[in-house]
Amino acid sequence: MSGAGRGRAPIAQTLNLDPRRLESTVFERYTNRAAGIAKRRERSRQAWLNFGKPGRDPSPFGAVVAGIAEEGNWKPHLMIAQLGRHWDQVVGTGIAQHSRVASYRDGVLTIRAESTIWATQLTYMIPQMQRKIAERLPGMPLDRIIVTGPRSGTFKHGANDRATGQWRPRGRY
Description:
The protein has 173 residues and is of the alpha+beta class. It contains 8 helices and 5 strands; from the N terminus they run ααααααββααβββ. The radius of gyration is 35 Å and the shape is elongated. It starts with 10 loop residues before the first helix and ends in a 5-residue tail after the last strand.
């Protein structure tokens, strides 16, 4: 026998462990883990068995999304998206083909028209648009509607092509 083990006390005595409870202390953690795994497996099995049954979900998905939209102040953004999607119902299909909702900020709705002629037409329709928007989207704060024509470069420098970033002469090319 080597001298390494001589003179040393047993580990249970060194760590002040009760030798009668040593096995239960060491293996208690393992039994708790095994019990937790068994519970998770049972919950997983029950979830598969109950999948899709009525009354299982605490609230419908649509209600949860609506609650998030209300709390996160997304409602104006969702209303503008809805307005853009149904723009033809507000101004008519002919004008909707030549205009779009460009932006909305602080109660000001900006509409971009394809040409100055369409912008003029839309400018005359602002009171009608305000009434229809208030009717179709109640609760949307709308103080003013601005109608703009197409964007162009300055007369001094021509236009800047947004796709390539290069200068090009004015006009539609």
